[in-house]
Amino acid sequence: MIYAAMTDAGMIRGSNEDSFKVIEALDGLPWIFVIADGVGGHNAGEVASHIAVEEACRYIMANKSMLADGRQTNLEHVTSQVFTHVNASIYNASNEENNLRRMATTLTLVFAYENNLFIGHVGDSRVYLIDNEGIIRITRDHSYIEELLNNGAITIEEAKNHPERNKITRAVGYEPHVKPDIYTCIAKNGSFLLMCTDGLTHMVEEEEIRKIILESAKPEEACDRLVKTANENGGKDNITVIVAKFD
Fold first, then answer.
1. Higher pLDDT, 65 or 213
2. How many domains does the chain have?
3. pTM of the model
């Protein structure tokens, strides 16, 4: 597997509240990809996403023996515990300092055992699989807009400019407990994994994202072009992308 990652503040925001981390596969362990998009006043979102990524990776590596064989029961347990641990870390920190009150974050993590993917997810950051046949969104947004779309209350076109398109309905750290959605899937050889925050998906259409990734010579070029395109289209939020090719 080859990968690249990039984060950018965008054209409007004064700070970057996104965080990410990649841990390469070693000693029978999976590849580990983590991405978070913080929410909260002042610098609280930046703090929340940083805590989420660092504490998630710390917990995973402290329990890495459970990941060595790739058993789904172990993965489900570790994933659930990761989110429990991270949620408690952020929730407790937000209650200890006034300037961090109500901070929270999205959190999405992917374990990749060769082409087998196991995904834990809370919020509206996304995971896609992309190949010559199309682009498939694996995760479901925990957002007000997604609920309206699922209920048929608005159209996809109406969703693009809805005033509450950034409102999320589930986040890590808001409440004492959080439940992640869990997904499993298999990636084809030659296909791409894309993880991204909504700073990309709100600015660039899915088909354009797919076109950029497939036309790019390497994941590094894909990341650079995705970020540049999001900024050229307005760059209204922080943008973070991780692109990995299964080869």
1. 213
2. 1
3. 0.93
